[in-house]
Structure to design on (60 residues):
């Protein structure tokens, strides 16, 4: 593991792409100013069946 991977908080997000596909994205988020941030994508892939069911059950 790289040094940054031990000190950065990692996030896992499920979101619909502009093409309508549900994506599972692992990323970091670092505030760089009052109204700005840096997002580093670690991985992105199509969501699994289980992740899709989880996303569909989120109350909106």
């Amino acid at each position: 593991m790289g040094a940054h991977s031990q000190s950065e908080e990692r996030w896992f997000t499920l979101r619909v792409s502009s093409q309508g596909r549900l994506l599972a994205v692992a990323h970091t988020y670092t505030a760089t100013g009052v109204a700005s941030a840096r997002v580093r994508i670690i991985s992105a892939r199509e969501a699994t069946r289980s992740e899709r069911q989880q996303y569909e059950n989120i109350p909106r």
